[in-house]
Write a sequence for this structure.
């Protein structure tokens, strides 16, 4: 409920306290110098081992072997790139829509459960988190393969004569990615729904709203912060997905990460760097765009009210 | 304060009565036998029976009948069989400590809890099995339950929208009901931009804008500070008088219940301990729980000596006292008498055995000056501790700790519990 950021009552060292006073209002740096000290080790770690290599790698797209925009120029008339980029965005859209439509009801159920039922459901939702993406992708291969469980079962039941082509299709990629990314959709939505004052849906019902009307006019709008957070999370993760499409997808359903890996295999580092930069920029542009939407800015902060 | 409403009625200036153009304000009070009052707000003010049946004030409030209502829980707040008739236009308060089942009872009437036994009838029709959204009951929650993503106007229009009312009519009723709760011009605000008291007014407006025949309130003033609570109490009484609909109000605040209600049902451990108008509960509590829960009470243990002129004669630690009893008591039965502290007074000069008076000797053990009154702790000869409250006057001598005095009170203020 409180407007500002809750401040931890950390005792500041004497010099920091003094600086806080001198810096007066306005200077965030001075005001939070104690907190900055606490995060400094991680910031240093990230700068040295993450930011620096990534920047160096991205830089190769424009300076390898000498300063040039040649790689980006090549991008603009590379038909393979456009095909792969379109396929990547399409897959991300389908996966996000699938995860949202399957995840929202689960989040709703989860938020209404109490006690043991809630714990068990939460564990089931989180279970995929505790298994590696690689293992889960192989599991999908076992299920969807030409002689996989599904085909064998259908054949045994006499539904089909020749095995269906399930593995190495766009469908397989969507299916497996929805499964893997579902928790990222469910958890933020369930978190917001759990915060919802149970008196609100009651009040709506008391005022004459049908159960569907209550959901549409009260529960859904108030859960939008969670929906937006989950959607962004799943969409952004989908854009960069690599292992699953590589294992269960077909050659024609290549995604951007696979194209990047391919270029690296070909030792075409500058073009791979250029593709990476494009993926990063597209993702950042999307996030920026969403920030500009009304209501989203608040949604990305934790508590609403 | 009585049924309470009559005193307030002249203040009513009601150009904005939501329920409409009816010129008359009618209040049916508490007890079923009760007097009816008609207050003119228009040129003639008499109700013409049948002229406008739907709008008739006589019929604005729902009759609610609870029969053997039960809700079994493992948790606190279970209801163990409640039967109660609530009249049309009555202001009934369910009063009790937390866990006494009062909120559960209210939630069953609203339809948010399903009874495990018994029946709820509204206007003679059982509503068991009717979902909440079809009951057409107004409800005000303790934490207001305003929709945070909607403006004040959208919040109040919410029930109207559910009923398919068009935009223009909605806007008009929103304006009317905001005027009624004295928040004109607040349409475009969001709930978070309002103070607690203002939010509660909006919640009230939203609960009455669709002209329900019954309004349920679950500790609506619980989250507000004392001053705001007192002004809203008066406001709710005014609204009740203007609307003429039935109010069922839940609170644990006995003073609030006394001020606002036509009738109070005191609840304890899932049952109704006593039901009646405020004065009846205050003057004639039926048991020790009610006597202690409503106001402050002194309890004097004793033994019955017999009956005399319909009064019980009791021996309390050697002093003979008379008291009102609901039923005759046979000699030798142990009993407890109760007296309100403010009904006792120091009576050194009064003659022994004055008619209709009880008197005994007690020693002052503590004397506290509390502004409008002085509060004394006393000890009787048999060790019973008593409280006596005396209005403070400059001319009245303050009693000193250790003084032994005679105290007296009316037999009519002495009740066997």
């Amino acid at each position: 409920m409180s407007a500002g950021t809750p401040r931890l009552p950390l005792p500041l060292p004497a010099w920091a306290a003094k600086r806080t006073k001198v810096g007066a209002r306005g200077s965030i740096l001075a005001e939070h110098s104690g907190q900055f000290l606490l995060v400094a080790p991680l910031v240093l770690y990230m700068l040295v081992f993450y930011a620096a290599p990534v920047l160096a790698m991205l830089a190769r797209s424009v300076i390898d072997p000498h300063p040039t925009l040649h790689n980006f120029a090549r991008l603009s008339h590379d038909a393979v790139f456009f095909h792969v980029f379109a396929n990547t965005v399409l897959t991300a859209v389908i996966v996000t829509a699938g995860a949202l439509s399957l995840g929202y009801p689960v989040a709703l159920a989860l938020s209404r459960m109490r006690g043991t039922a809630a714990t068990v459901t939460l564990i089931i939702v989180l279970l995929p988190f505790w298994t590696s993406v690689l293992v889960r992708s192989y599991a999908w291969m076992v299920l969807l393969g030409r002689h996989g469980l599904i085909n064998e079962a259908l054949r045994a039941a006499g539904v089909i004569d020749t095995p269906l082509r399930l593995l190495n299709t766009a469908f397989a990629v969507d299916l497996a990615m929805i499964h893997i990314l579902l928790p990222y959709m469910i958890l933020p939505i369930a978190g917001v729904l759990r915060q919802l004052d149970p008196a609100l849906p009651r009040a709506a019902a008391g005022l004459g709203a049908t159960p569907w009307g209550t959901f549409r006019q009260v529960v859904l709008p108030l859960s939008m912060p969670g929906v937006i957070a989950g959607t962004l999370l799943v969409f952004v993760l989908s854009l960069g997905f690599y292992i699953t499409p590589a294992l269960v997808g077909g050659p024609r359903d290549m995604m951007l990460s696979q194209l990047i890996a391919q270029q690296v295999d070909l030792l075409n580092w500058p073009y791979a760097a250029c593709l990476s930069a494009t993926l990063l920029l597209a993702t950042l542009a999307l996030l920026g765009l969403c920030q500009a939407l009304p209501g989203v800015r608040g949604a990305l902060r934790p508590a609403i009210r | 304060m009585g049924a309470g409403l009559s005193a307030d009625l002249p203040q009513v200036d009601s150009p904005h009565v939501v329920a409409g153009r009816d010129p008359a304000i009618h209040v049916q009070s508490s007890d079923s036998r009760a007097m009816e009052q008609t207050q003119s707000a228009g040129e003639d003010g008499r109700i013409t029976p049948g002229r406008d049946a739907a709008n008739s004030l006589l019929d604005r409030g729902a009759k609610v009948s609870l029969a053997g209502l039960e809700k079994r829980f493992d948790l606190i707040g279970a209801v163990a069989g409640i039967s109660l008739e609530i009249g049309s236009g009555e202001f009934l308060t369910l009063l009790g400590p937390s866990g006494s089942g009062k909120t559960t009872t209210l939630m069953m009437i609203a339809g948010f809890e399903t009874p495990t036994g018994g029946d709820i009838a509204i206007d003679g029709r059982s509503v068991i099995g009717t979902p909440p959204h079809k009951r057409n009951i107004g409800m005000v929650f303790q934490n207001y339950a305003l929709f945070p993503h909607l403006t004040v106007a959208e919040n109040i229009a919410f029930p109207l929208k559910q009923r398919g009312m068009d935009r223009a009519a909605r806007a008009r009723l929103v304006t009317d009901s905001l005027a009624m709760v004295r928040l004109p011009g607040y349409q475009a605000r969001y709930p978070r931009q309002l103070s607690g008291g203002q939010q509660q007014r909006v919640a009230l407006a939203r609960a009455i804008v669709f002209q329900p025949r019954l309004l349920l309130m679950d500790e609506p003033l619980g989250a507000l500070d004392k001053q705001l609570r007192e002004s809203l109490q008066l406001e709710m009484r005014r609204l009740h008088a203007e609307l003429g609909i039935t109010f069922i109000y839940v609170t644990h605040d006995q003073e609030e219940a006394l001020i606002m209600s036509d009738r109070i049902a005191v609840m304890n451990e899932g049952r109704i301990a006593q039901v009646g108008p405020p004065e009846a509960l205050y003057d004639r509590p039926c048991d020790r729980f009610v006597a202690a829960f409503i106001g402050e009470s002194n309890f004097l243990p004793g033994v019955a000596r017999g009956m005399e002129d319909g009064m019980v004669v009791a021996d309390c630690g050697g002093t003979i006292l008379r008291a009102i009893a609901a039923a005759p008591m046979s000699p030798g039965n142990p009993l407890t008498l109760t007296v309100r502290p403010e009904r006792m007074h120091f009576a050194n000069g009064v003659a022994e055995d004055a008619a209709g008076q009880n008197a005994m000797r007690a020693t002052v053990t503590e004397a506290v000056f509390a502004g409008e009154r002085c509060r004394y702790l006393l000890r009787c000869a048999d060790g019973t501790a008593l409280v006596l409250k005396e209005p403070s006057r400059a001319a009245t001598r303050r009693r000193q700790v250790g003084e032994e005095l005679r105290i007296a009170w009316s037999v009519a203020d002495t009740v066997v519990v």
Q: What stands out?
A: The two ends of chain B are 24 Å apart (CA to CA). The domain at 57-137+212-283 of chain B is CATH 3.40.50.300 (Rossmann fold).
